[in-house]
Write a structure and sequence with these properties.
Largest sheet: 3 strands, antiparallel
Strand content: 5-15%
Oligomer: single chain
Number of strands: 5
Helix content: 55-70%
Length: 201
């Protein structure tokens, strides 16, 4: 046995269990409050979850919704870390690309030197190896910086985010003149007490 009730505002029909008599819920169609007849309404009625005649979901009553978004302090911290994290991600991406190019040039130099032979070939091999090592280390370092910046932007892994900003201080890529001020900016933001607290949440 079910109770049929109409929304007084929009006329939407709901089929409810008898136990819902006297309860109040929010109409999914118009947002108006609907009181189920046939019972004594409580002083503070709890939201019910009726089965609508035409299917769908319901909005909970005001004051009963559990907040899942960030709090005010959390949102403020997200806003503070957003820009330095995004700038650092862009710089890290560019640096990864340039270091990959350096690695490829090093490989080409080693191969060319091996084919040339003699003193000139040895110089090419040594220079190529230097490019290979610096390119590989640059790629690894900037991947760490990129991942750390992503975590910083989401207020996750404070230690990893801090490590990424410190690593970015090392002038090891073509973008070092831009990386240095951005990494200092990131460190200042990360050392803010409110931002630290937001990471812990």
């Amino acid at each position: 046995m079910t109770i049929s009730v109409n929304c007084g505002a929009c006329g939407k029909v709901y089929s409810l269990k008898p136990e819902a008599a006297g309860e109040t819920f929010v109409c999914q169609a118009c947002g108006g409050q609907v009181t189920v007849p046939g019972g004594q309404a409580q002083a503070s009625p709890a939201p019910v979850s009726p089965q609508p005649a035409s299917g769908g979901t319901f909005q909970p009553l005001p004051g009963t919704t559990r907040t899942t978004g960030p709090s005010g302090d959390q949102q403020a911290a997200l806003d503070r870390v957003k820009l330095p994290a995004i700038f650092m991600m862009i710089i890290a991406g560019i640096s990864i690309a340039t270091n990959v190019v350096a690695f490829c040039l090093g490989m080409f130099g080693v191969v060319s030197g091996a084919n040339a032979g003699g003193y000139q070939g040895d110089d090419l091999v040594i220079g190529g190896m230097a490019y290979i090592i610096s390119g590989a280390l640059g790629v690894i370092a900037n991947i760490v910086i990129l991942v750390g910046s992503l975590k910083m932007k989401s207020l996750k892994a404070y230690g990893f985010s801090l490590t990424a900003m410190i690593l970015a201080l090392i002038p090891c890529n073509a973008c070092c003149l831009i990386t240095l001020p951005v990494s200092i900016w990131g460190l200042i933001v990360l050392n803010d007490a409110k931002v630290k607290a937001a990471f812990k949440r």
